[in-house]
Amino acid sequence: MIKEQMLDFLASQMKCEYLSDLRFLQEGKRRILAERVEALGADEYDLRQWNDALEYLTGGRAEATAEAAKAAITSSLRESR
Predict the structure, then answer these.
(1) What is the pLDDT of residues 16-30, one digit of tens each?
(2) Domain range summary for the chain, segments of one domain joined by +
(3) Taking the CB of residue 2, how many other CB atoms lie within 10 A of it?
(4) Under a CB-based contact definition with an 8 Å cutoff, are residues 74 and 37 in contact?
(5) Global pTM?
């Protein structure tokens, strides 16, 4: 069975009609998204998918490990816009 791509999974979890809606969530929903990301195990997705999510959701630069990318995503999502 092929596992769903991380960004598609997160869009589904947040009930986004389009993947691009993830980038424009209001502050409260961004915090919920941070919680969803935090609940994922760093080993559930490969480093490429973590870094893709980091770049797409936050504009952040690629990290050397999945754990670092996960931490950067959650930290950025929790910050106010």
Answers:
(1) 999 999 999 999 999
(2) 6-78
(3) 4
(4) yes
(5) 0.90
